[in-house]
Amino acid sequence: MRHGRKVNHLGRTDSHRKAMLANMASSLIKHKRISTTLAKAKALRMYVEPLITKSKTDTTHSRRIVFGYLQDKETVTELFRDVAAKVASRPGGYTRIIKLNNRLGDNAEMALIELVDYNEVYGKEADSAEKKTTRRGRSKAKKSDAPAAKTEEVKAEEVKAEEVVEEAPAAEETKEDKGE
User: CA geometry: angle at 110 spanning 104 and 113, to 5°?
Assistant: First the structure.
């Protein structure tokens, strides 16, 4: 039975696992994304998300608690300055796990774990992009743009026609001048 075994031990002793997760969390906060195995990424998410939540309240007590986990002064400073400011409005879900191809050596499932607010691909630019419409649901804006484009083309043709008309009498005058 596995009653009460909610922590994935990752094949390590308690002290080794805590040190490894602290190092991985520091790397994640410094570099904003790291590549690791899927099991370690899931364990790291459970480890680092409460620390990011704790960093939203910038008090001496919360800094000391987070330092107790991470044991790295620069990482704690960056977490409370940069990362906490970006995730202030987010209620949770600060990390994203993206599965990668299996590792060549031992065929282990690999994953990329990253901080959500630091990715430009999935960020606000992708959300603001216009959605593609289906053929039956064409927008009215596109229909209104088409006549405007036609009127511009018609105006351009009229201007060219006027230029041709103006040039033609001048050409006739020169022929008459030569004939006389």
Answer: 150
Q: Which pair of tokens denotes residue 170?
A: 């001048």
Q: Give DSSP secondary structure letters for 96-145.
A: EEEE-PPPTTT-PPEEEEEEGGG-SSSSHHHHHSPPPPPSTT--HHHHHH
Contact 116, 94 (CB under 8 A): yes
Per-residue pLDDT band at 24 (split at 50, 70, 90): very high
Q: Are 17 and 10 in contact (CB under 8 A)?
A: yes
| Residue type (1 letter), 25 | A
CA 70 to CA 139: how far, in whole Å? 53
| pTM exceeds 0.85, yes or no | no
Residue type at 15? S
